[in-house]
């Protein structure tokens, strides 16, 4: 860790001097780093505002109470992994695609094409699947919103957090065919990663699947006491295949594909909550008052049908599926102890 930091500061010093000398000559400010952009694809684990305001969830109270203080399109009380990764890269969180014509100047930090509820395949959600999200990106490149050099300096973040599997279980559910379905999800993910790479993005981060057997929707069966190993075994299958596929891609291309091991990071935080000032880690903060309601539900008189815990900053999970800002912060802190993120910096 420390030797890494030293290595970076040694590398950066001559670069900064170079930039500073350029600054004197030209007499105007240059950024300390070449401009970098973040492009985001996937689902609610990374979507920062693309879903519609009239739908349940991210645009309704009490979502966003911690950050920005009101509902703003994130499936959490506050910041998501996207926001932490942007900060790590020295950027503002990229603009949700939906707002590209409203605040076009903000497209300079990149763009967030992710839509909550989606998968690599069609799911029950009517929002664009990942193929269509990459089509939107392709369209913007054709419109010359981004140049080749923008793209080669960019980082892409790809999240496949389980909606394909939820949909499979809800519509088909054959346990026998599950391994084959996992293989097809990985195959489609690889097709997507290759498309993003061919568009010119050199660094592509893909999230490994989090321990689905530990999300409150599943652990509700045990009153939020224990993770379900049946689900986590399937997740391990997905993650191993993903790892193999990405290893192969790295051998075949000149791009850097990086798997973020969310499984281990979630487990590390869930197993050692107190080191992150978290309590009762499997218990969600915001829940419906009964099973027909969920976090954010109101009745026809606009009366709340959910409860929010006293202090979201000590909960890992926000609702039945999504971490709190504190949860993501802890996962991000844990990921920084691995080598994965270091490869994204210059
Ligand atoms: C993604 O959605 C598009 C448009 O709805 C559809 O044509 C395509 O088949 C879907 N792709 C996958 C891989 O399911
Ligand atoms: C995905 O859904 C779109 C409509 O949203 C439909 O046109 C398309 O055929 C579907 N594709 C697949 C592979 O199911
Ligand atoms: C359901 O399973 C069958 C047989 O494995 C497969 O052909 C079909 O595509 C599956 N449907 C969905 C929605 O996954
Ligand atoms: C996806 O599966 C198809 C058919 O099995 C195969 O031809 C193709 O090479 C696979 N693609 C990737 C990227 O693994
Ligand atoms: C885990 O989930 C499966 C599928 O829903 C269920 O059959 C099993 O009883 C659960 N196991 C535990 C320990 O809760
Ligand atoms: C795959 O897993 C192995 C063992 O956990 C790890 O060392 C390697 O870095 C992983 N590869 C990728 C591409 O993440
Ligand atoms: C990788 O880069 C080398 C040198 O720039 C080039 O010769 C080679 O064709 C590239 N390979 C691929 C798969 O892009």
TrEMBL record:
Q: Which UniProt keywords apply?
A: Hydrolase, Lipid degradation, Lipid metabolism, Signal
Q: Which domain of life is it from?
A: Eukaryota
This entry's Gene Ontology molecular function terms read:
hydrolase activity, acting on ester bonds
InterPro entries with a match to the protein in the record: GDSL, SGNH_hydro_sf, SGNH_plant_lipase-like
Signal sequence span is: 1-27
A Pfam family of this chain: Lipase_GDSL
Q: Which GO terms describe its biological process?
A: lipid catabolic process
Family label: Belongs to the 'GDSL' lipolytic enzyme family.
Q: What is this protein called?
A: GDSL esterase/lipase At5g03610-like
The species is Clitoria ternatea (Butterfly pea)
